[in-house]
Amino acid sequence: MKKTWVIPGIIVVLLAVLVWAFFPRQATAPQKRTSAPPVYPLKISDNGRYLADQNNIPFLIKMDTGWQLAMRDANAAYITEYLDDRAAKGFNAVLITGANWNPTQPNDLGAYPFGNPPNMETPNDAFFDNLGAIIQKCADRGMLVFLNELNWQGGYEHYLTEATANSMGQYFGKRYKDMKNIIYVHGGDSSIIKSEDSRKIYRAVAAGIKQYDTTKLQTYHIGWNTSTSDFFMNEPWLDFNMYQSFSAENTFAYTQGLDDYNNHGSKPTFFVEPCYDYNVTYGTIVKPYHIRQATGWGILSGSAGCGYGNMRVFRMEPNVMERANPPGIGQYVNIMDMVGAYEWQKLVPDSGHAMLTAGYGTYKEIDYATAALADDGSFGIVYLPDAREITVDLSKFSGRVTAKWFDPTNGTYKKAGTYKNSDTRKFAAQPKNNAGDSDWFLILETK
User: Fold this and answer.
1) Residues 98, 18: Cα–Cα separation, whole Å
2) How many CB atoms lie within 10 A of CB 14?
3) 275 contacts 309 by C-beta, under 8 angstroms
4) How buried is residue 366: exposed, middle or buried, by Cβ count under 10 Å (0-12/13-18/19+)?
5) Is the peptide bond before 117 cis (omega within 30 degrees of 0)?
6) How far apart are CA 60 and CA 304, in angstroms?
7) What is the dihedral of CA 272, 276, 277, 281, to 10 degrees?
8) Do the beta carbons of residue 189 and residue 207 sit within 8 Å?
9) How does 223-258 read in b/e, with b if 16+ C-beta sit within 10 Å?
10) What would the pLDDT profile of 186-236 be if each residue is shown by its tens digit?
11) Is 196 helix (H, G, I), strand (E, B) or coil?
């Protein structure tokens, strides 16, 4: 006869209590809020801090840099595969240059944007038909196109006058006015805008677009370590600011976001290009940690979203998918999904250290911890680029606070505790995360 062992119920209960008390526990992840696809075109929110769709639903920009999409055949299988991949990961936007970086280069179908040799007065419809097909493929996936119609850095400055810039703007505005999933982006890694003559050209482009299309937002893609707020803040055509850091461990990722938010708050700001996967900047090889660091810094410093870049992707060559998904992209997605699960539009950067009162590091240094608190005190988020003890003033929250740690390397949570919202609380330095690094997010929320 087979023996059956019966464990008394009291022992089972005691064992359960011991396991609960002494072993780490994973907190339940917040449910990702779902909503209908965005209703384009986007607009500026009523408070001037972020972008929203036509139903006033906040739009957290999760953008990939697919710069040379327009040079490829819209019907190529790898283009469809790329867009499907990005849409599946939750990307809702892609940055592309509409007519390549140089007007003397044709697309993969042999079409030149303005003929050969270039004549800015005669756009080539065949080239821009293909561009329209790519924009439509993005629309079919609910994705926004940041359309850098002409990339100034690539050589177009030699062909543009005030008159040709205006006619080109009219062409874009008329041709794509019925395609709602577009934001027009002037410039292109360009800070060649200090002269009044240069500014006149961008005003002419913007005016030409608006002559036929008054519904689309317009902005400017600036060079490294600068923001559009430095040059165009008072230009009526500029609907929101953009800035980029591009290099690894560049504190501009948060210093400029905070400056735009605190000093130029009449227009939203967007951190368009952090450091790129598969890149080397100033001798530093960009690693997944640097992607997380830039994203954590930017998204909690007032930005209306955050971009992602991959040096093996932006040229959109036929083998693009072979290196399209390094670890950095998954960790970027982890962070953006975590932030997007909350009412992120309520976040106000904690630049005065009212919430995170100690352990925030040194401003303008790479140890600086960014933090943001919802304007109604319902939740707050802290990004720690390395391990250290921190102090949080829980009295800034609207109710009892549940705290949990978020590991951006694998998207998991672990509970830290539940506390009264009446005093300060120290949180101990965390052990290594799943990737063996020391960066973590601390999430504090009231329920």
Assistant:
1) 62
2) 11
3) yes
4) middle
5) yes
6) 6
7) -160
8) no
9) beebbbbbbbeeeebbbbbbbbbbbbbbbbbbbbbb
10) 988 875 566 777 888 889 999 999 999 999 999 999 888 889 998 899 999
11) helix
Judged on CB neighbours under 10 Å (0-12, 13-18, 19+), 56 is: exposed
* pLDDT tens column, 267-323: 999 999 999 999 998 889 999 999 999 999 999 999 999 999 999 999 999 999 999
The phi, psi pair for 58, rounded to 5°, reads -55, 140
Structural element, H or E, at residue 16: helix 9-22
CA angle 389, 412, 306 (to 5 degrees): 85
Tokens of 55: 């139903």
pTM: 0.91
Q: Count the neighbouring beta carbons within 10 Å of the beta carbon of residue 222.
A: 27
Task: Give the 3-state DSSP-derived string for 375-414, with helices as H, strands as E and coil as C.
Answer: CCCCEEEEEECCCCCEEEEHHHCCCCEEEEEEECCCCEEE
- Helix %, strand %, coil % for the chain, to 5? 30, 25, 45
Cα-based distances in Å from 343 to 4, 107, 398, 406, 414: 53, 42, 15, 17, 21
Strands of 401-407's sheet in order across: 347-349, 370-374, 379-384, 440-446, 401-407, 412-419
Q: Is 43 helix (H, G, I), strand (E, B) or coil?
A: strand
Half-sphere exposure for 229 (CA within 13 Å, toward CB): 23
Can you tell me the distance from the alpha carbon of 140 to that of 438, in angstroms, rounded to the nearest whole number? 40
Domains and CATH numbers, the chain: 43-341 (3.20.20.80), 347-446 (2.60.40)
CA-nearest of 361, 301, 289 to 326 is 289
